[in-house]
Amino acid sequence: VEASVPEGQRAAWKKHSAREFKTKEEFENEAVRHIETTLARSLFNCDEAAAYAGTALAFRDRLVIEWNKTQQRQTFADQKRVYYLSLEFLMGRALDNAMLNVGLKDVAKDGLADLGFRMEDIISQERDAALGNGGLGRLAACFLDSLASLNYPAWGYALRYRYGIFKQEIVDGYQVEVPDYWLDFNPWEFPRHDVTVDINFYGSVSQYVDDDGKQRSVWDNGEIVTAVAYDAPIPGYGTTTTNNLRLWSSKASHGEFDFTKFNSGEYEQSVADQQRAETISAVLYPNDSLERGKELRLKQQYFWCAASLFDIVRRFKKSKKPWKDFANQVAIQLNDTHPTLAIPELQRILVDLEGLGWDEAWTIVQATFGYTNHTVLPEALEKWSVPLIQHLLPRHLQIIYEINSRFLQYVEKTFPKEKDILGRVSIIEESQPKMVRMAYLAVIGSHKVNGVAELHSDLIKTTIFKDFVKIYGPDKFTNVTNGITPRRWLHQANPKLSELIASKLGGYDYLRDLTLLHKLEAFVDDKEFRKDFQAIKYANKVRLAQYILEHNGVKVNPAALFDVQVKRIHEYKRQQLNIFGVIHRYLQIKAMSAEEKKKVQPRVSIFGGKAAPGYWMAKTVIHLVNQVGKVINADKEVGDLLKVVFLEDYNVSKAEIIVPGSDISEHISTAGTEASGTSNMKFVLNGGLVIGTCDGANIEITREVGEENIFLFGNLAEDVEDLREAHHKQGFELDPLLKRVFETIRSGTFGDAGQFSALVDSIVDHGDYYLVSDDFKSYIDTQGLIDQSYAKQEEWVTKTILSVARMGFFSSDRCIDEYAEMIWNIEPLKPEANGA
Ligand code: OAK
């Protein structure tokens, strides 16, 4: 506001204010101008990469205009905002989404054709923004899309990693990791070199008495690293609202200290300091659902939380409102426990820096934060060692102890007879060394805690947070079932299906209200519609088959049943169950007569997904899939009856090709381990069916689409504990079909069996923790049912159409409305609202 143009000069300003292109001519004008002047290219050296850049920059200009307006509107509106703190945002590509939201894709397509380019080629020039591992990061990206589309005033906060998730190469069947340096050309980010925050680490805490005679703490004499903001516009669909994603990049602070070093000849040291500072935001940790307790990771977490909170508080303070209004202006959602340090950090700001009393500050903190839990797996629950926090964040450790002590006093008073409860719920685990349990801190510091699917939300209340339900009552815990954005996961990934649906529903309103899909049920018997629907699935399978031929050199028949499992490789997700099932199928085919073979439903088994670089068992699974593929694909006796491929480097943009091309997809985690799953929703929305366990959102998908339209199998979550215990106590009988599979592996059919022994042994000798053997028979039988069902194509098409029609519930728009109402208490701010 201070820097605004004086009243008298505004007319001149407005006259020259940026224009928005609307026509093909204007688009070409903008794109060529960018290619020639921004990129310094010409007619004679404009390749597809340059054409992409010109197109992206033309659309970026459009976004920026709306982004500025939205930010201005949100600043002037006296309204609460939500801040979504997530260490991961798995955004994928931005151009197609920008074109959809600006609404001028056809104009650009014609314009590009005039200039000699094809839209698909231009779109595929963009590299994925892959700042995430898997489900949690992609959920955050879908949420940003929905928040903007629903006009909620919202910002995302994360780190600007120089390296996103590694690229996966498959070399001789093994995963090899290659760094993903994605920032060479990123037209979507805006460096804000004027928006910086100095972040403190290490140092010590001292006490003093302030002017009012109050004891105060100061944290000083540490290492300082500067956070620099980089902003990216997040456009909404069907609205001009354009929200902000702010990513923090670390750099050395140019304080007196460095300067002295530099002058005194310690040049190398000052360069080393600089590199040390830049390391903080250098790389995304590639572990999915596993915590390793590395100091640099904790530094990342604090750096990001402290910069974001400073920013949020700075914005609040500009409003000149009293502190008691903070939680009426600010909601902060913690995406899992990674941002939990934001809790003691806000308490520190309020108490140490702003001088509020402890209780007053704590009331504000609890009212501000909400916490989403994404896993119950013990190895994924974050714990940080007390000595590490003491060293890195001495004042925060004091605050955490104070929070804990007050909490435990309350618990002791409320449950005087329960002696054990204090040890169980303490934020500090009394181990050697002592550990800070971040999930407990997150529960205690938030007003709401949610799980991400019904079963999961029930499970957290009866397992990891059981005692907290007793302490706080059940209302603090709630469920918000995950969702996906239909813009990317239907319209962009499957434009033909989207168009067909629009032709039946009378337009694209369903992309803003996905429940409108239910109207498709009326067309389930419409011959023409069924034919079109089926033809689109086939065309998407042809596209996927071409992709497979190009990338794997394997020719697959698009008429075969395409069976897909793409997700991070993890024992609990049980890709091993899938590949053992494939081996079983292979053995069956091998034993068949020519006559029998004629009755076999041909299948293509498609795998994809990254393994964490240090996760050997997961890497072994990848290797086995590739070895099995090599043998089966070359086996003339099998031919088209079975093909097995592993698609390299699964990511968001590849998912956009793979998902629409699937007939059946596998979501087969050991019951009770997959919190929700979100790709299950994407596959069904694109006319595929699911084979799944009674886990995560599979259960709600079943409720919505009807149990006749999904293939469920396996043991239930409620029986898993007992089965594991029985394995432990009595041992267990290996399923005979699985035994045969293991014998085949051991015989060397897929190469040296020694390479796969850890995988087999984990089941045979080490208790089969993930119950592969217990579920094997039921899995195989269910796959048999799928073959039969697929053979009756008319029935199959009916199932898929009805399923699509019933997926309305799984839009991330529904999900965000639930968060807004139940947890954040925020309202939309429509573009026309205050005339801005
Ligand atoms: C990653 C790191 C730590 C903790 C959890 C995760 C994670 O990705 N969890 C996944 O979150 C998704 C979104 O809620 C769920 O759909 C997946 O089931 C869950 O595994």
TrEMBL record:
Belongs to the glycogen phosphorylase family. It holds the Pfam family Phosphorylase. PANTHER family: GLYCOGEN PHOSPHORYLASE, GLYCOGEN PHOSPHORYLASE, LIVER FORM. Its EC number is 2.4.1.1. GO terms for molecular function: glycogen phosphorylase activity; pyridoxal phosphate binding. Transmembrane segments: none annotated. It comes from the Eukaryota. CDD domains: GT35_Glycogen_Phosphorylase. It comes from Cryoendolithus antarcticus. It is an enzyme of class 2 (transferase). The keyword Oxidoreductase does not apply. The modification N6-(pyridoxal phosphate)lysine is found at residue 682. Allosteric enzyme that catalyzes the rate-limiting step in glycogen catabolism, the phosphorolytic cleavage of glycogen to produce glucose-1-phosphate, and plays a central role in maintaining cellular and organismal glucose homeostasis. GO terms for cellular component: cytoplasm. This is Alpha-1,4 glucan phosphorylase. It catalyses: [(1->4)-alpha-D-glucosyl](n) + phosphate = [(1->4)-alpha-D-glucosyl](n-1) + alpha-D-glucose 1-phosphate. InterPro entries: Glycg_phsphrylas, Glyco_trans_35, Pyridoxal_P_attach_site. GO terms for biological process: glycogen catabolic process. NCBIfam families: P_ylase (TIGR02093). Its cofactor is pyridoxal 5'-phosphate. Keywords: Allosteric enzyme, Carbohydrate metabolism, Glycosyltransferase, Pyridoxal phosphate, Transferase.
